Amino acid sequence: MSQPVTAILYAPGTNCHEETAAALTRVGLHSELVLLRDLLGGTSRLQTYQAAVIPGGFSYGDHLGAGRIFAAMMTARLGDELQEFLAAQKPLLGICNGFQVLAEAGILGGNAPGQRTMALLGNQSARFEDRRVRLQVSKAECLWTRGLAGRILVMPSAHGEGRAFFPSAPDENAVALRYCKEDGSPAEQYPENPNGSPDGIAGVTDKTGFVLGLMPHPERASLPVHGSQDGLQIFKNLASFLGG
Amino acid sequence: MAIYSIYTQSRDDAEARHWLLFFRRHGHRELTNLVIERVYWLEGRVDCEKLLPLFANSVYQTASSHSLLDHAAGPVIEIAYRPAVTDPETPSILAAAKALGEDGLEFARLSKRYQLTGISEREARGIAERFLFNKVVERIRDLGESVLALRPTGDPDSVEMIQLAELSSESLSKLSTAKSWYAPLSQMQVIQAHEQRIGRLHTDAEIEILVQSWSDHCYHTTWKSLGLLKKLSAATRRIAHPLVVSSFTDNAGGLEFYEDWVITIKGETHNFPSSIAPFGGVATKHGGVIRDTLGFGKGAYPIGGTTLMGTMDPAMPENEVPAGALHPQLILSESIRATAYYMNPMGIPMMHAAYKRHPGYAKCLALGHSIGLIPKKYALKDAPRPGDLLLLIGGETGRDGIHGATASSTTMTGETLQKESAAVQIGHPITERRFATAIPVLRDAGCIRSITDLGAGGISCGAGEMGAETGVMLDLDSIPLKDSSLTAWEILLSESQERMLIALPPEKLGKARSLLDRYEVGNTVLGEFTSSGRLEANWRGQKVVDLEMSFLWSACPIDPIAVAEPYRKLKSLNIQEPCTAGEWSRAVHLVLGHWHCADQSAAISQFDSTVQGRTVIGPYGGKNHHMPSGIYVSAPLHGKSYGVCMTVVWNPFYGDIDPAGMAKLMLIEAVTKAVVAGVDYHDLALCDNFYTPRVRPEVAWDLTRMVEAIVELSIKLGIPFISGKDSSSGTFESGGLSIEAPPTLAVAAFGRVADVHHIVTKDFKQPGNKILLLGRVGVHALGGSVYADAHGQRGNQLFNPLGVGDAQSIQLVWDELLRLGARGSYVAASAIGEGGLLVRLFEACHGSGLGARIDLDGLEKVAGEVTGASRLRSDELLFGEFTGAVILEVASDFDTNKNLADVPHCVIGEITKERQIVISRGGRVFWQDSVASLATVWSKAFREALE
Predict the structure, then answer these.
(1) Which residues of B fall within a CB distance of 8 Å from A18?
(2) In what order do the strands lie in the sheet with A152-159?
(3) Number of CB atoms found within 10 A of residue A243's CB
(4) Which of A34, A130, A217 to substitute to test the interface with B, most B CBs within 10 Å?
(5) Which of A58, A139, B34, B280 to pair with B215, CA 20 to 30 A apart?
C-alpha cells in the first residue's frame, strides 16, 4: 500500500496551513495542501486521503461567524463524501478556525453534518486573545490524545471566538482538553482560561474518538525554538495510527 | 430587484455585554441593558430560507424576517456604512450564497442595531456618535428608511476640460484649493505652461494625476528640496555593506539572509486618515505596508509586522480635546481594534507594538512595519517591456481614498474631518490575504516581471511609475468598479485598498489567470506597456489621459525651503530628589506606571504573535510570558536555526529637546537592543521613519539636522539604512490653534542571526549571579526621560552616550558584548532605555520570579570616571536613560578585571531568590519593594486607560 497522505484543507483566509504541514513533516507524515475549492469542484477527492486537518486562520474572513462559510460550503456540497470519511473512521483534526468549522458543520457535538449541536462563542473578554495556555488531557477516548491522559501540555492559543457552548451539558467523554491551572485542575479564570469556556473546555472529540477540535495551536509548539514541543504529541498520535 | 432583510440576534453576546459595561463605566449608570441585532440586506432572486444557516447558527442565534427588538424597551440606533463604502462581508456572502446554489443573489449589505435600555433616544445617539461609529465612513440609518437598491449606482460625470491659460496666480491658487488639489502655485504654473506647450486643454484626469504624483506624500517634495533622500542613500552606498541587496529603490529594503534567501523591511506612516477615522486609517496602514512587502522584488512573503501609535493623552478631559479632533482615547481604542482586525486575519505575527503619548500628537502618529522573506533570485525586479500586460489584482475600485494622497500631505484642520471624508478607506484583510497566498505562487511560476502595490495615488501612480521608462496604455473600462458612477479621474486616483499591479509577460496570461482564479483573487488586464514614453488612458471611447512620462516624472518644480535654527523654550529640570522610602516608592510608581514603561499587554495580547510557527521571541517572554521582550526573533525557514531579528525605538520626548541628539540616541538604542541579545551588529541594517510638522524654516532645520546626524553615525558605525519613509504633515490646525507633532524618528534595527538558540533574553536566570552594568553612564540622562515627564517636565539637554570618544566608544561596548556573548559569559541581558535601570531590573525580576539587591556606589564611581561628573543623584542613576549601556547577568565568579578591559563597567548587585528589589547607596538601603506589588502598579496604568 502506498504511503498514507493527510489532507490539509484550506480556503481563502486560512493562514496556518504551512506551519501545520511543517509540523506533520516533523513527525514523519506526508501531507498535501488541498483547497476547499478543489474539493467542491471535484478536482480533489476527500476519499484519496487517510486523514485530514483543518488548520487555523480566518476562512472567508470569518464573515457571518467564525468558520461558518467554510462549514456551510462543506456540508452543502460535500455532505456524502464527508459522511463516508467519518464512517470510515479516518482521523480528522480541526485547529482553531478548523475547530470552529467542525462545530459549525455539526461534526463535533453531534456528529451529524449539517445539524449543529455546539458552538464557539465570542471570548468572554469580547476580544482576540493571544496567550500561551496550559492544557490538561482528559481520559476521554480520542485517537489524537491517546496515551496522554493526565498530561499537561503547553502551547500558544490565539483566537477571538473560542468559548465552547453546548445547549445541554456535553457528555464527559466529549471533552478531550481543558485549560488548566499549574496543578492541572480546570481553569475557569481569565487569563489561564483565555476565553471563558465553561469547565475550561479547550478541545472536544466526537463519540468515535477519531475527530478532535481544539482552540490552541499544537503546530506552534512543535520545535525546540517554540519553547514547547508538546503539540508534537498530538501529531505523533496520528503518525502512529497511520503508520501502525 | 427584490430586497430582503434578515435580522439576527445572539444569546450570550459577549460584545453586547462588553459595551454595556463600558458605557456604564463611562457615566451612563442608568443604562440597564444592551442588545445587538444584525441586519442582512439581500438584493436579488433568492430563497432566504436556504440561506438562513449562513446568517444564523440556531444553537445560539435567532433569525427572522423582521426585527425582534421590542421598541418599548428603549431607543434603537442602527449603524451602517455610508452607501459608497462597501461592507467587508459583501464578497463573502455572495460567494457563500453561490456555493449553496443561490446564484440569484446580486448584492448584500449589513447594518447593526443597538438597543439601549434605560436611557433616552438623545443619550443613545450621543453614545453612538462618541463610541459606536465614525461619521466619516458610517452613518446612523433611519429605521424607517426605505431601501430601493443596495449597490451604489448612478452615471458618472463626463470628463471636464480645464483651462488654466490667462489665470492669475491668485486664481490658480484658488482653483487648486477649490478642487482639493492642494498643489503649490509653482506646480500650477508649470501645468499652466504645459497647457500652452501642448496646445490643448488638460483633462481633469491629467491635472489630477499631475498634482497627485507631485504631492509631498507621493513625490516627497519637502525631502527632495532639502536633499535629504540623497544624503541617506549616498551614505548607504558609501558603506557598501556586503549584505545589502536592495536599498531605497524598491517598495522595501532587502538584506541577504542565509541559503539564498533575502529578508525585507519597510515602515510606513498613515497619520492623516488615522486621525480622522482611526479604525479605517490604522487598518489600511497595515494593509499598505504589507503590500510593500508583497511588492518587493517579484513578491516577498510577509513574516512580521509592528504597530506604533502616538496620541495625545487618552485621559484628557473631553473639553480639552481640540475642536475637530477625535478624543485620544477613541483613537487609541479604535487603533487597537483595527490592528487586531487587519493583522490577525492576515496571519502575520505581531513583532512589536507600542503606544505612546505626547501633547503634540493632535494629529496622531500611526506607523507600521512589515518584514518579508523572498528567494534571492526574485529579489530584484525586471524592467517591464513593451508588450507586457498590466494585470490588476485584488479588490474592486471604488470611491474610497480619493484625494488621500493630497489630503495626507496637507495640514489637518478642524474641517478636514468633514471635507476629505472620501479619503478614508476601510480595509478588507480577506482580500489581501487571498493575494498574499497567491503572489509567491505566481512568482514561482514566472508570471511576475515586476509588481507594485497600489496605495497613495492609486492606478495613476502605480502604472505611471511602473511604465515610466516605457509608456503605458490603460483601458479604464476594464476595471471592475464598486460604484458605477465613478468618472475617469476617480478611477485613476481611487485608493481602494487591497489592489496590486503586475507587469506580466503576455505569454503567461493564461497561467496567471488560472492561478489567480484558483485562489479566488480578482484579476483584470488593465492595459499594456508601450514604447510611447507616454501615460495614456482611454475611457468610454475617449482618450482621457495623454501625458509624456518625462513631464510627469521630471517637471515637478521643487520649491526651495528656507531653513532657520529654531529657538526652543527649554527649562532645566527641577525635581526634588526623593528622600524617604515613601518618596522613593512614589517615584518608582510614577515611572513604572508611566505609559511608556507600563504593561501594554491589554492591547498587545489582542494581536497574534505566534502565527506562521516561526516566532522564537515574541513581544512577551519570561517565565510568565508577561515580560516585554524588547526584541523580536523568528526562525523563518521552517526547521532551520537561522534567525531574523528586529527592534524598534522612538521617543517623542527627546525630540522636544534636541532632534539631532534624539536621532543619534534612537539609532544607538535600536542597535544596542539587538546586540545585547546576541546579534552581531555587522548583520544589521536600519529603517528610518520620520514624522515632522508641516515644513517651516525651523522644522526644515530640525529635519536636516536629524538626517545628518543619522547619516554621520551610520557611516561611522558601518550600519546602513536600507529603507525608510518620511511624513512632513504632523500639524493640526483648528480655530487659529496650531498643534505640531514633536520631531519624531522611529529607528528599526533589522537583521539576521546565525543561530536563534544563542539569543539571550532579559529575564534573570539564577539567584547568586552578579548583575553587571556595561557602558557609559553620566549626566543629563534625565533629559527627556519618562521620570521627567512624570513630573511634568522635559529638561534642556539629552544624554550623550558617545562622550568624547565619538562612535568608537559605543562600538567598544558592542564588541565587548559580542566577545562575552561568544563565550556564553552572560545569561540574561537588556539595554537601558526609557525609565532607566529600574525598569529593566523590574522586568528581569518580573519575568523570572526572582529579585535583585542593588548597590549604587560602584555605579557612581564609574560615572565619575567616564564623565568627570561629581556626584550623580540616586534618581539619576535609577531612572536616567543611559542609552547604549546594558545590564548583564554573569556568574558569581565572573572576573571583571580579567574579562572587561576597555569598557566602562561595574558590578551593581546580585540576583536573589527573594522576590524583592532592594536598593542601597553608601551602605544604607534607601528603598525596597516586592516585585509582585510593583507588578500591580506596572500592569494597571495602561489597562485602565483603555477601560
Answers:
(1) 612-613, 638
(2) A30-35, A5-10, A51-54, A92-95, A211-214, A201-205, A175-179, A129-137, A152-159
(3) 12
(4) A130
(5) B280
